[in-house]
């Protein structure tokens, strides 16, 4: 999305390509590369493990995609749901009610980002909201004006996030952490790594808007856990 000066803060060019991975609202960037979907490494016939997947360096975009990971761990807490694409996200505490678009990876391995301030998007390479693991929803903090996640920094621990899915289910997540990270030190593994429950990460830009770079210096990450796998 665009920064306060109207400059693209998340795209590497006018073609709306993310510079390196995801960097919401002005630039939800981090320093880890997007990885493959979860799955165990089988190794060669000799029993040797497969070499780790190369991870591109994050430059400036929404937020990095999750790294390659081993088999998913067992779950705790609310029972995870089967995979189903999310179509809507609601955060009553800050007045967010947005449709969701799919965000995949570019040909160069960088993560796609929404082409404008609205709507928010979900990363298709991660679990869907309600599945075991960390689901990812990203949105811009601003563009030509306030973006879908303009007030994400105001979310409080205990606030709830509801996601409507294509199968009619409406899993509810409760916020457990709200963090602000410098883009140069984005904790990729902490945000995208495997977890033992159904979780959700909401990502956007934050901190000071750097007029020299046309991007915000930090990323806001909201961590939430599934508390109610409700069915609509």
Helix and strand topology:
Layout: E1 86-91, E2 96-103, E3 120-123, E4 133-138, E5 160-165, E6 169-182, H1 188-192, E7 198-210, E8 215-231
Parallel strand pairs: 2-3, 4-7
Antiparallel strand pairs: 1-2, 1-5, 3-4, 5-6, 6-8, 7-8
Description of the molecule:
It is built from 1 helix and 8 strands; from the N terminus they run ββββββαββ. The protein has one helix at 188-192, and strands spanning 86-91, 96-103, 120-123, 133-138, 160-165, 169-182, 198-210, 215-231. The chain has an 8-stranded mixed beta barrel. Strand 1 and strand 2 (96-103) form a beta hairpin. The longest helix has 5 residues, at 188-192. The radius of gyration is 17 Å and the shape is globular. Mean pLDDT is 76; it is low at 1-46, 53-61 and 69-75.
User: Total number of helical segments?
Assistant: 1
What is the CATH topology classification name? Sortase, Chain: A
Q: From the alpha-carbon coordinates, what is the Rg to the nearest angstrom? A: 17 Å
CATH homologous superfamily identity: Sortase
Total beta strands: 8
* Helical content (DSSP H or I, runs of 4+): under 10%
Number of domains in the coordinates? Answer: 1
CATH architectural name: Beta Barrel
Summarize the structure.
With 232 residues, the protein is mainly beta. Helix content is 2%, strand content 32%. The model is unreliable at 1-46, 53-61 and 69-75 (pLDDT under 50).
């Amino acid at each position: 999305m665009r920064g306060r000066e109207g400059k693209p803060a998340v795209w590497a060019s006018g073609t709306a390509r993310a510079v390196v991975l995801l960097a919401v609202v002005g630039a939800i960037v981090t320093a880890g590369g997007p990885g493959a979907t979860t799955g165990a490494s089988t190794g060669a016939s000799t029993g040797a493990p497969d070499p780790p997947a190369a991870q591109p360096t994050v430059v400036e975009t929404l937020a990095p995609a999750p790294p390659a990971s081993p088999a998913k761990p067992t779950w705790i807490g609310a029972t995870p749901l089967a995979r189903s694409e999310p179509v809507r996200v609601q955060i009553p505490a800050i007045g967010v009610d947005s449709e969701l678009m799919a965000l995949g990876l570019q040909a160069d391995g960088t993560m796609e980002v929404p082409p404008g301030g609205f709507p928010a998007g979900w990363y298709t390479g991660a679990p869907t909201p309600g599945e075991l693991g960390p689901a990812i929803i990203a949105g811009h903090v601003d563009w030509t004006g306030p973006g879908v996640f303009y007030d994400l920094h105001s979310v409080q621990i205990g606030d709830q996030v509801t996601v409507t899915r294509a199968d009619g289910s409406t899993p509810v997540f409760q916020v457990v952490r709200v963090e602000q990270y410098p883009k140069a030190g984005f904790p990729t593994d902490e945000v995208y790594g495997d977890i033992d429950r159904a979780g959700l990460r909401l990502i956007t830009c934050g901190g000071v808007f750097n007029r020299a770079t046309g991007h915000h210096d930090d990323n806001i990450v909201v961590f939430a856990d599934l508390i109610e796998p409700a069915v609509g």
